[in-house]
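Per your request, structure below.
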């Protein structure tokens, strides 16, 4: 019956509370209808993100006790460096405090005013850093990528013809680098295929361009390559990882998706790239053997990377999400298909077809869902965009309510509860109206902007 089976058991638990609906209503008002501003004590399930909130393994916890605490030359750092070398085959590793710090370093190094960064899709922070350095982002997704319902197993693929056209039209010297994102976050955690990355590599070789790989959501993408890409079904996760890594010039990642509270890094085989970026690590992050992380976190990352090579570990998120998506589809609730990684993505424009996009349907749905369930999701739509220079609203391609599935944290009954509450809300969707800003920050406004009902 496709019920996911947990290949782990729980040995430490945390008590959670379900506040009465009156309190939840008050809490969302206090939070300016922005789920980022809710307090944990008011949450039942926290499905805001899969970042920094995944369960850690006993082995990660044990490794943290062994951490070698020294400013420079720490043995712990060497362990991680060795693990990166073993798994990704990259000689040089630069630590950073998290994913966006890597994006800062890479963008400052390679993006000059007027340059373009083609991507399969942007991520909020990755785009912000390119723009901050005077560059622009061009998204070259396939036609299938933005369809809510689809049978295409790799909606995160780049359209190779569009990529070539873009390079020909603008000239290769205008391209800072090509960025490929694993488990394409903002279109529903959708993977790219190994085959697609091979084709991108060919284009890079033809035009002498750098391929930068955002591996933050690599675990999910690996699972999908293994289970959906015919020619990879007999490859081990380790072999797939190595092939992906060999195709990239620079790999960076957020370690917050590995059960860690912080952390990230950049690896490469190019001494030139390493030397260019190295100075920025010591300027913004810390010394080269910690880069803004604690040694405990560095130990946990090394173990987390190793555990990512285990199919019984990386299948947990995607299988829970697949189960949830299947249940929602059966109830006629509009949801992104095929099921991706990271979380379950509800199509807010389909759910709330009476709320115009300028009134942030995904934000409104996130607030309403919290009120009826105590579950916190995240708006991934127009609210998460930034206005253009003239102050015009940029309407996003999709309006999604993301219900993230922190890995190995929630049980199947939690998922069933979420499905039950969504079903009630869908039947009563006419109760939900739009939102408008009362306080609107100019950068990454979704994090701390405040709204009210229209
Ligand atoms: N790249 C991708 C694909 C991400 O999903 C994230 C973070 C980052 C980069 C930035 O990493 O948070 O460590 O600075 N995604 C989180 C999320 C925040 O909830 O989607 P970070």
């Amino acid at each position: 019956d496709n019920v996911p089976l947990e290949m782990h058991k729980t040995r430490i638990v945390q008590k959670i509370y379900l506040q009465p609906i009156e309190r939840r209503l008050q809490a969302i008002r206090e939070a300016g209808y922005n789920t980022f501003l809710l307090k944990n004590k008011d949450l039942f399930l926290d499905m805001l993100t899969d970042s920094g909130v995944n369960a850690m393994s006993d082995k990660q916890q044990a490794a943290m006790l062994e951490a070698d605490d020294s400013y420079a030359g720490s043995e712990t750092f060497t362990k991680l460096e060795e693990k990166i070398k073993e798994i990704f085959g990259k000689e040089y590793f630069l630590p950073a405090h998290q994913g966006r710090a890597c994006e800062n370093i890479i963008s400052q190094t390679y993006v000059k005013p007027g340059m373009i960064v083609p991507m399969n899709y942007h991520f909020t922070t990755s785009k912000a850093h390119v723009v901050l350095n005077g560059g622009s982002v061009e998204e070259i997704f396939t036609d299938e990528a933005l369809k809510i319902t689809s049978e295409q197993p790799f909606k995160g693929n780049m359209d190779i013809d569009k990529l070539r056209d873009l390079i020909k039209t603008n000239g290769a010297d205008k391209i800072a680098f090509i960025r490929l994102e694993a488990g394409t976050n903002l279109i529903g955690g959708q993977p790219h295929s190994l085959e697609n990355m091979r084709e991108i590599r060919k284009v890079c070789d033809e035009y002498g361009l750098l391929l930068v790989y955002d591996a933050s959501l690599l675990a999910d993408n690996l699972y999908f390559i293994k289970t959906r890409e015919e020619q990879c079904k007999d490859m081990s996760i380790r072999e797939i990882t190595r092939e992906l890594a060999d195709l990239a010039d620079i790999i960076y990642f957020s370690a917050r998706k590995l059960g860690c509270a912080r952390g990230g890094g950049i690896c490469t085989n190019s001494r030139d790239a390493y030397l260019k970026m190295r100075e920025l690590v010591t300027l913004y992050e810390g010394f080269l053997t910690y880069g803004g992380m604690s040694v405990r976190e560095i130990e946990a990352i090394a173990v987390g990377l190793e555990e990512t090579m285990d199919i019984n570990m990386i299948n947990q998120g995607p299988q829970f999400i697949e189960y949830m998506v299947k249940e929602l589809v059966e109830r006629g609730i509009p949801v992104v298909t095929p099921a991706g990684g990271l979380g379950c993505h509800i199509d807010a424009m389909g759910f709330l077809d009476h709320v115009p996009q300028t009134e942030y349907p995904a934000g409104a749905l996130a607030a309403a869902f919290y009120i009826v369930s105590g579950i916190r999701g995240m708006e991934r739509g127009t609210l998460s965009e930034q206005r253009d220079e003239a102050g015009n609203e940029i309407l996003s391609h999709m309006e999604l309510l993301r219900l993230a599935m922190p890995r190995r944290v929630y049980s199947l009954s939690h998922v069933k509860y979420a499905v039950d509450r969504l079903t009630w809300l869908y039947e009563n969707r006419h109760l939900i109206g739009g939102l408008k800003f009362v306080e609107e920050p100019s950068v990454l406004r979704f994090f701390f902007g405040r709204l009210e009902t229209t």
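Residues 21-50+313-453 form a domain with the Aspartate Aminotransferase, domain 1 fold (CATH 3.90.1150.10).

Regards,
D.
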